[in-house]
Write a structure and sequence with these properties.
The complex is a heterotrimer of chains A (about 350), B (about 650) and C (about 210). Chain A contains twelve helices and 13 strands. Chain A is an alpha+beta fold and about 350 residues long. Chain A folds into two domains: about 230 residues, no CATH class; about 40 residues, no CATH class. In chain A, α4 crosses α11. The longest helix of chain A has 24 residues. Chain A starts with 14 loop residues before the first helix and ends with a helix. With about 650 residues, chain B is an alpha/beta fold. Chain B is globular, with a radius of gyration of 28 Å. In chain C, β4, α2 and β5 form a beta-alpha-beta unit. Chain C has a single domain, classed as Pyruvate-ferredoxin oxidoreductase, PFOR, domain III (Pyruvate-ferredoxin Oxidoreductase, domain 3). Chain C is globular, with a radius of gyration of 16 Å. Classes of the chains: A alpha+beta (about 350), B alpha/beta (about 650), C alpha/beta (about 210). Chains in contact: A-B, A-C, B-C. At the A-C interface, loops of A face loops of C. β8 of chain B pairs antiparallel with β2 of chain C, so a sheet runs across the interface.
Chain lengths: ~350, ~650, ~210
């Protein structure tokens, strides 16, 4: 007969406990949002993920979906997810069917997009084609910190355009959308960690809604990200006056972080910014969002243009249609640029491997 | 509680210890009574307040026990009989005044201090023996054993006080204050003198040393007068094998234990009711007639130590004795006594074979209780705003992410240390100490301390002790957030009024002193939030935490759920959408009943979904905000009725 | 005074227990008054502190002809236990029970908040009943809340239990004395329901 007072649930193997120990409390969290919005035990506010209570369950999605969780390790995980899509991992850029330099043509993108506007235009097209009915994007929210937003129209997509350089846990918005009793298709624009989590969602047995409804993932190139509060503090310390409208990191040899507000444009030494990056980012090997349908980044040496990697048939169909409708222009990329891209991606892989080894 | 003036002199009535004390004061002609609520003392002033109009007396809830005793002393200076009552912690608050008053002396009107201690800490934060105040301040001390004796002792206390012109202390405990027994009330007095303080008379303590000597003389005189009362009694054989020296409830336990052991030929009880100064003559007489002494008292070995010292002083005359008590381990040094504990102690000393119970039954009972009986935890009432407040604090400190601390204080919200308050409180000590601690933490930034500090205090505690700490924080620029949980009540002790309610003990309007006026006066930034609105409260708290730079105040204003219940209740009928409820699945796992823990929410194992306990739920609507599936619905009551 | 009824056990040591808010302090006061009026020596010891906040509340009612008793019943020496909640009855028996004790309990569980939260288990009711039977000379398992609800208010359960207590033959007072004590404490408007509750409680023992 069990002792009445001893019938306590003490979950040492519980998933949320592991997530806290391995990721949240050990500095690995990159605030991608995969664990947020699944349940009320995980909170996200002003850039910070927190789990004050214990859920008491031994199995749960939060740990399984976390891109930074230790088990299985990232390489194993990624391999498995690529295999599910019938792909080889193909380092350092990941699997792709085509690589382009690309630019979106519409004049309404000017002044709003980061480089070539290809991400925004492709997502608008996906909405128009009803490949997706709702897009999960990232936008500055309360207190200027980024948050996930759900949009259904071009205007909403353009409002969320531009790089943000801080982690906004936008996958929380995806989780909330998937929790709704609905069948409409969803699209995501996300960082490499988020593309990994999205692929894990679609493969997860206990998350059928993801497989059914997440139909497009556009990934962004990323070397590191900043915590929202850290960025805010940095800008305040550097005397940046007012909310930032645009951020950029110009190509080498410039070692600066550019911040544009309504009144001024300011350069902050890049070294200062690198000090503030999320420690978890050092453990991520993926620079080009290898698990997305399409991955987009800057084009070296060509401001106003994007590098475009088409990875899956879904991605290919979308790009083909965009070309057909004269929404985007594609050109062959310069081999030098591709070489540099591969080198940069390889560098991130190497650094990540070293970081994991140190752990 | 009732109007005690309605009792009929000469007709036996069932009165609680506290009521007996109050009635004793009325029969002694008390005019002025002041107190601060504190279990187990609260009923004394409550009863006097209810009787105030008929008795023509003044009964006041003061803001704290120091002010209460000072006010009562003032009445005594004018010739009115006055009384202050409190729990053991109140004596601590009043102590500085007591230690000075004993030198200046009280006035022509008798002045009595009632302390109601709480052995075993039935409802206190500590277990403290306030009898030491008598020794510390050289004051006469009375310890009644029954309500009838308490009534008689109170009357005697006023007379004694006037004889020696000093404060007299009467000490009760929970087991007396909250025990009802039959007693016969006496007559209520007629006229009382008009208060007057001759300006040529002064009450101060200088020159201290000569006045200190005079104080000792007063105490000795008190001893002589007390020896004439019948409050110290011996019952037992002429030459007992074991003499039990006992006071208070322990005297009754000792008598009963002797009866249980059938040891009335071997053991006798010297019941002491006048315990300080020690009744020297009586002690010499009875110590001479025995060789073994057992001390029975609560909680500390006060009489045990003092009488052993007295014995040492007189050892040549008395010879060798064996002493038993807390020092010998015969009785525990903590917790209250009981008949069984006394029986075990006496049996051990006298070598009597005694088992309190049948061993088979004992084993059976222990096994069944261990196996089947879970504890019954304390918790906030359904609808309690403190649950919502602690929820907001817990969530906000979590996303703040800097390992914030919560400094707690005294009141219903002290339960924040328990699961009902999500175990979020990091320290609780005495009234107002939470702010003092926060004040200290708020200065540690210079050493690299970077954990944010949230101090939690109730509205009654705010007026009692928090104000000086707030001045300190403002003046020294301590960095912390103060959350005033303003539920417009001194709830834990029974809903006595306080300055923020604007009501006084008599029920008539007093002048309202509100929390925000105090903040304004101190130049503090403050915001008022409704804890029932979790999002707004969390955002306000998050803002305050990021602000930094000195003391910031958030007033969490929402009336106590029990008070609301008496004022028409809450607006909602809560319902569960069973289809939407996620039950025990990943995505929830009974978040409402398991984590939020309002007793109005239960989990139905059979159906696997949450349910509202309609008898318990009051319909405050807060839980609807925490359900991840939106399955808890708050329906306005009028709509439901329609 | 009911001359037909006598105090057969001395001291008659009764424990009235339950959860804060169920009214057992009131019940013990009513009983105390009735006994005092009938000429007996009564001591009623109440334990409450944080009880309103969901904890257990216990009163000890000690009855003698003349002798003044202390407020605490000696460990394991209760004559009878009257409980407004079945789990509390078992808890009390652990400290105050003996092989001769008589137990009257309401059969309606009140879940502790830690049980509702899933942190502890409330025992199976039949197991609980069996344990009470095991630990007492006689168990009365009474639907006091059910009766109280029939009469219109669950709080009347404590008065139903008082009626039942009259029916167990231990008290030297009867229904009339209890009713008279109740009438001193409640206004006349509340009395019809209380009278019915007493009568129904007594019926339960038939």
């Amino acid at each position: 007969m069990a002792k009445a007072s001893q019938v306590q649930r003490k979950p040492t193997a519980a998933r949320l406990e592991r997530l806290k120990t391995e990721v949240l409390d050990s500095g690995l969290c990159v605030a991608c949002g995969a664990c947020v919005g699944l349940c009320p035990h995980v909170l996200f506010y002003d850039g910070q993920v927190a789990a004050p209570d214990d859920c008491g369950l031994d199995q749960g999605r939060c740990y399984d979906l976390c891109p930074q969780a230790l088990e299985p390790n990232q390489e194993t995980r990624r391999k498995g997810l690529h295999a599910l899509a019938g792909q080889e991992p193909n380092p350092p850029l990941g699997p792709y069917q085509a690589v382009w330099q690309a630019k979106a043509k519409s004049p309404d993108l000017a002044g709003r997009v980061q480089y070539g506007g290809v991400v925004s235009e492709l997502m608008c097209l996906a909405l128009d084609m009803e490949v997706v009915e709702e897009a999960v994007l990232t936008k500055a929210g309360r207190r200027g910190a980024p948050e996930g937003v759900r949009v259904r129209e071009r205007a909403g997509v353009l409002e969320a355009a531009g790089s943000i350089y801080a982690a906004g846990a936008s996958l929380a918005a995806l989780n909330l959308a998937l929790a709704e009793d609905s069948s409409h298709k969803l699209g995501l624009v996300g960082l490499p960690c988020q593309a990994l989590a999205a692929a894990a969602m679609k493969a997860h047995q206990a998350y059928p809604a993801a497989a059914k409804r997440l139909s497009l993932v556009i990934g962004l190139f990323c070397t590191w990200n900043l915590p929202a509060r850290g960025l805010r503090a940095l800008l305040a310390a550097e005397g940046v006056d007012g909310p930032a409208r645009k951020y950029d990191i110009p190509p080498p040899p410039a070692e600066v972080f550019l911040v544009e507000t309504a009144s001024a444009s300011q350069e902050i030494p890049l070294a200062k910014v690198r000090e503030k990056t999320l420690p978890g980012c050092a453990h991520c090997p993926d620079m080009t969002a290898e698990l997305a349908d399409i991955s987009v980044g800057a084009m070296e040496g060509r401001p106003g243009w994007n590098t475009l990697l088409v990875r899956t048939p879904t991605g290919q169909r979308l790009v083909d249609e965009a070309v057909k409708r004269s929404l985007i222009v594609l050109e062959e990329p310069a081999q030098e640029s591709l070489k540099h891209l591969r080198a940069a991606a390889e560098g991130k892989r190497t650094r990540a491997a070293a970081a994991w080894k140190e752990r | 509680m009732a109007d005690l003036t309605k009792l009929i002199p000469g007709q036996i009535a069932l009165l609680q210890g506290n009521e007996a004390i109050a009635r004793g004061a009325l029969e002694a002609g008390v005019a002025f009574c002041a107190a601060y609520p504190g279990n187990p003392s609260s009923e004394i002033l409550e009863t006097l307040a209810e009787s105030a109009d008929s008795a023509g007396i003044y009964a006041e809830w003061s803001v704290n026990e120091k002010v209460a005793l000072e006010s009562a002393a003032a009445a005594s200076f004018t010739g009115l009989r006055a009384m202050a009552s409190m729990k053991q912690n109140g004596v601590n608050v009043a102590q500085d005044f007591i230690c000075n008053l004993t030198i200046s002396g009280s006035g022509p009107g008798g002045l009595v201090l009632i302390t109601c201690d709480d052995p075993s800490s039935i409802s206190s934060t500590n277990e403290q023996d306030a009898r030491f105040i008598a020794r510390l301040a050289d004051l006469p001390l009375l310890e009644p054993s029954t309500p009838a004796e308490a009534l008689a002792m109170v009357k005697f206390a006023f007379e004694l006080s006037e004889e020696i012109r000093n404060l007299v202390v009467l000490r009760s405990v929970s087991r007396l204050s909250h025990t009802r027994a039959g007693l016969v009330p006496g007559k209520l007095p007629g006229e009382r003198p008009k208060p007057y303080w001759d300006p040529k008379t002064s009450y101060f303590t200088m020159p201290v040393v000569p006045m200190h000597q005079k104080m000792h003389q007063k105490l000795a005189r008190a001893g002589q007068i007390m020896a004439q009362t019948g409050f110290n009694r011996y019952e037992g054989p002429e030459l007992p094998e074991l003499l039990i020296i006992a006071s208070g409830s322990s005297a009754l336990y000792a008598s009963e234990a002797i009866a249980l052991l059938k040891a009335d030929q071997k053991a006798g009880v010297l019941k002491l009711g006048c315990t300080w100064p020690l009744p020297a003559e009586m002690l010499l007489e009875h110590l001479a007639k025995t060789e073994q002494v057992l001390f029975a008292e609560e909680v500390d070995p006060f009489l045990e130590s003092e009488i052993k010292a007295f014995y040492a002083q007189n050892v040549t005359q008395l010879g060798i004795k064996r002493f038993f008590g807390k020092a010998s381990g015969s009785l525990a040094s903590t917790g209250e006594n009981s008949p069984g504990k006394l029986a075990a102690a006496i049996a051990g000393i006298l070598g009597i074979d005694w088992r309190a119970l049948d061993k088979d039954y004992a084993d059976k009972a222990t096994a069944l209780v261990t196996a089947l009986v879970p504890p019954r935890e304390f918790g906030f009432c359904p609808g309690c705003p403190h649950r919502a407040s602690y929820w907001a604090i817990k969530q906000t400190l979590a996303v703040d992410g800097r390992q914030g601390l919560v400094s707690g204080d005294i009141g219903c919200y002290s339960l924040g240390v328990l699961p009902t308050g999500f175990r979020r409180v990091n320290s609780v000590h005495c009234m107002g100490s939470g702010l003092g601690i926060s004040s200290g933490l708020g200065q540690l930034g210079r050493f690299g301390f970077n954990q944010p500090v949230v101090s939690v205090v109730g509205d009654s505690t705010f007026y009692h002790a928090a104000l000086p700490a707030m001045v300190n924080a403002r003046w020294n620029q301590a960095d912390y957030v103060l959350c005033v949980l303003d539920n417009s009540a001194t709830a834990m002790t029974g809903f006595q009024p306080h300055p923020g309610t604007g009501q006084t003990a008599s029920g008539q309007g007093g002048c309202k002193v509100d929390v925000e006026s105090m903040c304004q006066a101190l130049g503090l930034s403050y915001r008022i939030v409704d804890p029932y609105d979790l999002t707004a409260t969390q955002e306000a708290l998050y803002d305050a935490l990021q602000e930094g730079g000195g003391l910031r105040v958030l007033i969490f204003r929402r009336v106590c759920a029990l008070v609301q219940g008496r004022q028409g209740g809450h607006p909602y009928r809560m319902q569960i959408d069973q289809e939407a409820c996620r039950g025990q699945e990943c995505g929830c796992n009974r978040f409402c009943s398991r984590v939020f823990r309002c007793p109005g929410l239960v989990f139905d194992e059979a159906s696997g979904v949450a349910a509202v306990d309609e008898v318990t739920c009051v319909g405050c609507g807060v839980c609807a905000q925490i359900c991840p599936a939106g399955a808890i619905v708050a329906q306005p009551k009028e709509e439901v009725a329609a | 005074m009911s001359t037909a009824l006598k105090l057969n056990v001395e001291p008659l040591d009764l424990i009235i227990t339950g959860v804060g808010g169920q009214g057992n302090v009131l019940a013990s006061q009513v009983l105390g008054r009735a006994l005092l009026k009938a000429g007996y020596n009564v001591t009623v010891g109440e334990t409450f502190g944080l009880s309103q906040r969901g904890g257990a509340v216990m009163s000890m009612v000690r009855v003698t002809r003349d002798k003044t008793m202390g407020p605490l019943i000696p460990e394991n020496r209760a004559t009878a236990v009257v409980s407004l909640e079945p789990l509390e009855a078992l808890r009390v028996l652990g400290a105050y029970g003996n092989s001769e004790v008589m137990v009257l309990t309401n059969d309606r569980p009140l879940m502790p908040v830690n049980v509702i939260a899933g942190a502890s288990n409330y025992p199976d009711l039949s197991e609980l009943k069996a344990a009470l039977e095991n630990l007492s000379a006689r168990l009365y398992w009474l639907p006091a809340t059910k009766v109280a609800l029939e009469l219109g208010n669950p709080i009347l359960a404590n008065v139903v239990m008082l009626g039942a207590l009259v029916g167990c033959g231990l008290l030297p007072v009867g229904l009339a004395e209890i009713e008279s004590a109740l009438a001193e404490m409640f206004n006349e408007a509340k009395m019809p329901a209380n009278r019915q509750a007493l009568a129904r409680g007594l019926e339960l023992m038939a």
